[in-house]
Design a protein that fits this description.
Blueprint lengths: L34 H6 L6 H13 L3 E4 L6 H12 L4 E5 L6 H5 E3 L1 H11 L12 E3 L1 H8 L7 E5 L8 H11 L1 E3 L1 H4 L7 E5 L6 E5 L2 E3 L5 E6 L7 H4 L3 E4 L5 H18 L2 H12 L7 H12 L9 H5 L11
Parallel strand pairs: 1-10, 1-11, 2-5, 5-10
Antiparallel strand pairs: 3-4, 6-9, 7-8
Length: 321
């Protein structure tokens, strides 16, 4: 542990400059980082939950993962990618404005027209690939190879438009989609190299159509804020992640923060479990990790309101003005 336990207050609100280097950040807040490895090395689910993941992998079906905040829904995709050696996870965060086209591809028609006007060029389609970028779903379909699919995380699907799950059905079933801007070129340009999500690489699209060689490993997460249509659900394998038990929490703390973290965590774990399991608070596992990290680094958690601030319920509104 940090020996200098009395000097944890970096900021004192007394308007006196005290330039000093900040202490090392928690392991999960250090950048740049190998995102897949960082999440995977500290990931814990039960054998029964892992069996459901394996069923989805064998069936080549999307895995719909539900559970409370902090149960590790999003990190599951990184854990799968790491263990199976499938490279970086393609991430598609969903919000209320997200449409299927956002996941498939984006075409910068305005930028292309502007650049053509500057160069005095008109009617030349040879550069169209520089203005087309496959989205996370489009990249997952296009760049997987036999035996080595890409891993796609569609995060918080339940926050999307009500039609989005149904819009995904055809793509999930057929593994193919058309890019009209390329299809209409006909024989003038049968092969076009377009940009892909997350890298500077290019993928060659033939006759304006993307067709997967290997269906991606798709992890869809949901906080359970709304139901999905039966037609969508029957095409998924469903996994409901439970809140970690006390023993699982101790394993998670030890994996992230080592022996010092585990030895400092007992009373915090008990407080966390009491508040969470009795319904006093909606809490996520990373809140517990935050509290333990502070203690290991000499922060006086007994100060008024500090534990309550770190372990504040996720459904608790702020003070009313």
């Amino acid at each position: 542990m940090n020996a200098d336990r009395g000097d944890w207050r970096l900021y004192r609100a007394d308007r006196v400059p005290r330039p000093r280097p900040l202490p090392k950040a928690p392991p999960w807040r250090r950048f740049p980082a190998d995102d897949v490895q960082r999440h995977a090395l500290h990931y814990h689910i039960t054998d029964a939950e892992a069996d459901i993941v394996n069923a989805a992998l064998h069936l080549r079906r999307p895995l719909l993962v539900t559970g409370a905040p902090g149960t590790g829904k999003s990190s599951l995709a990184a854990s799968i990618a790491y263990e199976l050696g499938l490279g970086d996870v393609l991430r598609w965060p969903v919000n209320s404005r997200t449409a299927l086209a956002d996941g498939l591809y984006r075409y910068d028609a305005v930028g292309r027209l502007r650049d053509a006007n500057r160069a005095g060029q008109h009617g030349d389609d040879s550069d169209i690939g520089s203005y087309l970028r496959l989205g996370p779903l489009g990249t997952a379909l296009a760049t997987g190879t036999p035996g080595r699919p890409r891993v796609l995380l569609v995060d918080e699907l339940d926050k999307g438009d009500i039609d989005l799950p149904n819009d995904l059905l055809v793509v999930f079933e057929e593994g193919t989609f058309e890019i009209p801007e390329l299809a209409r070129l006909g024989e003038r340009h049968t092969d076009v190299a377009v940009m892909v999500d997350g890298t500077s690489d290019r993928h060659t699209v033939r006759h304006g159509r993307i067709s997967c060689q290997e269906f991606p490993v798709v992890v869809l997460t949901s906080n359970g804020e709304r139901d999905f249509p039966p037609a969508f659900l029957r095409r998924c394998v469903r996994l409901d992640l439970k809140q970690p038990t006390g023993e699982q929490l101790r394993s998670i703390v030890a994996a992230h923060l080592g022996p010092d973290g585990l030895s400092a965590a007992d009373d915090l774990i008990n407080t966390f479990l009491e508040r969470r399991d009795t319904g006093q608070a909606m809490l996520a596992t990373d809140q517990l990790l935050n509290a333990v990290h502070l203690r290991v680094n000499g922060v006086d958690l007994e100060r008024e309101g500090l534990v309550a601030a770190v372990l504040r319920s996720l459904d608790e509104a702020g003070p009313q003005e």
